[in-house]
Amino acid sequence: MVPFRSRVRCGASSLNMLKIAGAVVVLAGAAVFSQQVQAQAFPSHPIRMVVAYAPGGATDIVGRMLAQEMSADLGQTVVLENRAGGGTLVGTDSVRRSPADGYTLLFGTNAFVITPLLHDKPTYDPVKDFQPVSLTTVQSLGILVTPKLNLRTVQDLIAYAKANPGKVNFASSGNGSAQHLAGEAFRTAAKIEMVHVPYKGTGPAMTDLLAGRVDVMFSSLVGNTEHVNEGRLNLVATTGAKRNPATPNVPTVAESGLPGYEAGTWQAVLAPAGTPAPVVERLNAAIAKAAKSPRIVETLAAQGMEVRTSSPDALRDMLKKDSGEYQVLLKHTKTTLQ
């Protein structure tokens, strides 16, 4: 009888396991169904898209254009919110800590990858703590110089900096920004001394450059081509591998005596990690449609910026690649938060 009782116990155990397995399947199915329902209802109220810079810069300008086009497609308002500070850390971390429901997004730049690399203590992981949604734009930068220095070429700038060591400064939208790294890479390649002056966004930095309170800025041309055309700033070079289509008569830095130099910037939309896949897909589709708007494409192309979207997975791969490359660049240029 003992073997029989043993078999009965095993049978009961198997039944319990089947019940548990069934419950797991039901829960998994419920979770999938819940996500599908959530996606179908998304969005049911306005979406907040955070820009980790002060108003007035290229990221702010492009973000507002994108938000307007996305609003039309999604049927809900996409509200842009400027949250500057901490070299983009304040705004970025606010999104990381937000609910993963698609209603809080980050409109980020290269600084999204660079900022964590500049801190000794852990801040956030750009790959693990966020869900990529889509790339939106790419662009080379322009080297903009105050007319007060009367410098017209890269060689003029290098010669002036060597003749006045430590007196030339360059502004950026903040520590860890693509502008900051472009300037550091230029300083290293040209073997000159330049003092970095970080701001809380391109807007306030550009205001001081126009006023002649700072000397140089490596910046997007979006919002700045008029300043160049009207003589308020001198554009001495662009930083891409090829000449910028919007300024075909302006040479690249590489053409101007620093072969191999190249720097650029990108903008992308990200969400908190754990955002449901159907919601991410809906947002990605809205961005793809917005990116085809003639208003966005033509306006940005005239200022040297290319509209370029991607899948979430392609953006994740790009973030991983950039993180590795920026680690090498930061070490080479000895760039820190100081």
UniProtKB/TrEMBL annotation:
Higher taxonomy: Bacteria, Pseudomonadati, Pseudomonadota, Betaproteobacteria, Burkholderiales
Gene3D superfamilies: Bordetella uptake gene, domain 1, Periplasmic binding protein-like II
Keyword Methyltransferase: no
Family per record: Belongs to the UPF0065 (bug) family.
Keywords: Receptor
InterPro entries membership: BUG, Bug_dom1
Keyword Signal part of the UniProt annotation: no
Designated name of the protein: Tripartite-type tricarboxylate transporter receptor subunit TctC
Pfam families per the UniProt record, alphabetical: TctC
Species the sequence originates in: Pigmentiphaga litoralis
